[in-house]
Amino acid sequence: MTGAASPWCQRWQNGRQTWRHASAGGFDASRYDVDDLDETTAKRFLAAHHYAGASYPAALRRYGMIDRVDGQLVGVIVLGAPASSKVLTSAFPTLEPYTEAVEASRVALADQVPSNGETWLLARVFRRLRAAGVRGVVSFADPMPRRTATGQLVKAGHIGVIYYSSAGAIYTGRGTPRTLTLLPDGTVLNARAAQKIRAQEQGHRYAQQRLIDLGAAPIQPGQDPAAWLAHALQTIGARRVRHAGNHRYLFRLGATDRDRNRIPIGLPPAPDRPRRPDL
Q1: How far, CA to CA in Å, does 226 sit from each of 191, 229, 232, 233?
Q2: Cβ-based neighbours of 76, under 8 Å, separated by 6 or more
Q3: Residue pLDDT, tens place only, 192-218
Q4: What are φ and ψ of residue 276, in 5° steps?
Q5: Does this model's pTM top 0.90?
């Protein structure tokens, strides 16, 4: 794989990505259930398998995909609250953010799930969300591959195949372009984590420890946190890279097409869906 997303289904095992070709099939819906998931279990699954590790979104709802044969958790979807409510209100201007409109923040299936399990899981989760009063979901696909400082691919670029393969998906183009701080292990130090360090806000210890684990010296008593952050990033060889924006998909949830069509969207559908990840 060189970063292409289609026609491959991504799986996660111990922080590494594996792949299933969509044509392989083999998915047996009768073998699986979907159930509500507690925060601790969702975090543990994602930390163990997803490339983002212990990085975890602000979760509103969590659902697990359960293998009926052995009761094992084999997939997790986290519906979360984006950092800005505008992500939701710009997409669904008539829906209440965080209650009637949410973001699909994480989707991860374990290595043993056959291909085409994602669309089944999304459909079941959307049914549960609708029953809970959620009417709109915003989903993003990140088209930029991530590589370590040594060139190892740790995350392929995605164009949202599992989203536009799902019924009712509306592609609305890209989100806001931004500059990323890419760490040597291929993960991103997001702007919110950096601000926690500078202001020593709740959660700063975890963000600092990520940099220390990558080779930065521990912060010293009385040291200016902003100056420490700048020096730490330089020491470990963090890179600043330009990101053209994630691909954005909208889902209107309703029992019928008529119900769904009654939900206004605030973003125009894009004429062409993406065909390949970014370089």
Answers
A1: 13, 5, 10, 11
A2: 37, 42, 45, 46, 62, 63, 64, 65, 106, 107, 108
A3: 899 999 999 988 998 999 999 999 999
A4: -155, 155
A5: no
